[in-house]
Specification:
This protein is an all-beta fold and about 250 residues long. It has no helices and 19 strands. It has one domain: Porin (Beta Barrel). The protein starts with a strand and ends in a 12-residue tail after the last strand.
Amino acid sequence: MVQRWILESEVTWAVAVAYGIFNGLSVSCVVPYTWKDKSKLSVATGKPIEESAEGISDMTCIVRFSLLRRSFVHYRELSIGLGLKIPTGPTDRRVGGWLLSEEMQPGTGSWDYHGSVSYYQGFELVDFVISGTYVITTEHDGYEFGNQFLYLLASDFHVTERLSLSPALSGIVRAIDRDLGEEQRWTARHQLWFVPGVKFQAIPGVLGLQAYLEYPIYQHFNGEQLGGDFNFRLTATYSLPLKKSDEDDE
């Protein structure tokens, strides 16, 4: 039976907690809850087949240190981060008695390790951020997702105090997956997206709204894989500071 994916959607709510140990060093943890839906068209029957799953996803904790701290005098920052992804999400979701694929599960079941570097440069009318993150994955029940390298070049053009335009380039290089030690030849990929976006501070410092269109400008796949035509992403961020940081007084 030949099938092809025709629609994918994902909704994620996340709770993030950040704590400043001292100036320049902080630790943060993110716990997401995810809804995933996929609809595929069976060429044999001409009818769509629906798959869905939801649940708490894997938690990620990151320790970040600023080698060069941002201030009102120096609008630049260089930071490094080390992270750990903890397998808190389920990996046993089923539809019609059939176990869903690894990519449809809310969790991965593996302990993964992150290392990142980011640089921020701010100007009066525009800010720039460039970052790179390498993810080392581990095995779960014989399956191991390939290691990943994620890179980003983002900008914020300040239209007003609350509104900004945020074009960006976002990419991912993913190594080949392994199942019981055997390479899964249809898994490795390199994708680069152009991501125009709009940000609006509904309540400055508290509630932020963002809308992004992710359009692929380069896609290279190992073997035959399905690529994306475009992604549309809506984000709302609510911040609740429990204590004023020392940096606010500088």
